[in-house]
Structures are given as structure tokens and as C-alpha cells.
């Protein structure tokens, strides 16, 4: 689990951390776009928990500037930080690649 230097001391990234704590695991472009939530129908996330909620509700794509690549980066970073786990692959898409030839 990655640590970062908070206002008082180094600590693990947790759900209660402000979204800026993700700077240790996200690129500047992904973090800035996420933190500002350009064009989104919701307020910008304030905490890591807010980002996890947006990820789990599949709403990150509603933020202008976050395409599949940046969303994948955010997903990987949240998993790496230990604040969420990977979403299961929908049953409709499981094994699709196995049957193509």
C-alpha cells in the first residue's frame, strides 16, 4: 500500500484522504482532470472515497477529458492504493475472446 506525506506525517492512502493524496499514484493530467470534474453532472470529488464511488458507479466517463486510458489509470491506481478491488467482468463478456478464432 503506497504512502504519501500528509499535512502532518507520512501515512497510507485511505478513503478519508483528500483527492489530492492520489498524486502519488496518478499522473498529473489524470489527477487534475478528475479533481476538477470538467463538464460532469456532479460536484468534483473531494475525497478518495468520492473517487471510489464514481468508479464503482461507472461515472468517471462523465468527466470531460477522462477516456478509457485515463479511467484505466484511475482504476489501477485505486486498486494499487488498496482502496478498492477490480470490478468483476460482466457475465455477458466473459469468455467472448475464448470463442473467437
Structural notes for this entry:
This protein is mostly helical and 101 residues long. It has one domain (3-84). It is built from three helices and two strands; from the N terminus they run E-E-H-H-H. The protein has a two-stranded antiparallel ribbon with strand order 1-2. The mean pLDDT is 84.
Key structural traits:
mainly alpha, 101 residues, single chain
Short synopsis of the structure:
By secondary structure, the protein is mainly α. It has one domain (3-84).
Question: How would the blueprint of this fold be written?
Answer:
Layout: E1 3-5, E2 10-12, H1 28-36, H2 48-56, H3 68-81
Quaternary class: single chain
- Please state roughly what percent of the residues sit in beta strands, choosing from under 5%, 5-15%, 15-25%, 25-35%, 35-45% or over 45%: 5-15%
Q: What is the percent of helical residues?
A: 25-40%
Q: For the largest sheet, list the strands in their spatial order.
A: 1-2
| Global outline | globular
Number of domains: 1
Question: What order do the SSEs take from the amino end to the carboxyl end, as H and E?
Answer: EEHHH
Structural class: mainly alpha
Q: How many extended strands?
A: 2
Mean pLDDT: 84
Distance between the termini: 40 Å
> Gyration radius, to the nearest Å?
15 Å
Low-confidence stretches: none
Number of helices: 3
Biggest sheet features = 2 strands, antiparallel
Amino acid at each position: 500500500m503506497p504512502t504519501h506525506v500528509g499535512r502532518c506525517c507520512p501515512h497510507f492512502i485511505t478513503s478519508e484522504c483528500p483527492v489530492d493524496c492520489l498524486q502519488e499514484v496518478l499522473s498529473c493530467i489524470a489527477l487534475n482532470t478528475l479533481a476538477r470534474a470538467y463538464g460532469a453532472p456532479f460536484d468534483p470529488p473531494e475525497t478518495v472515497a468520492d473517487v471510489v464511488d464514481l468508479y464503482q458507479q461507472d461515472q468517471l466517463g462523465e468527466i470531460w477529458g477522462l477516456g478509457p486510458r485515463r479511467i484505466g489509470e484511475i482504476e489501477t491506481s485505486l486498486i494499487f492504493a488498496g482502496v478498492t478491488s477490480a470490478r468483476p467482468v460482466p457475465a455477458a463478456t466473459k469468455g467472448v475472446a475464448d470463442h473467437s478464432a
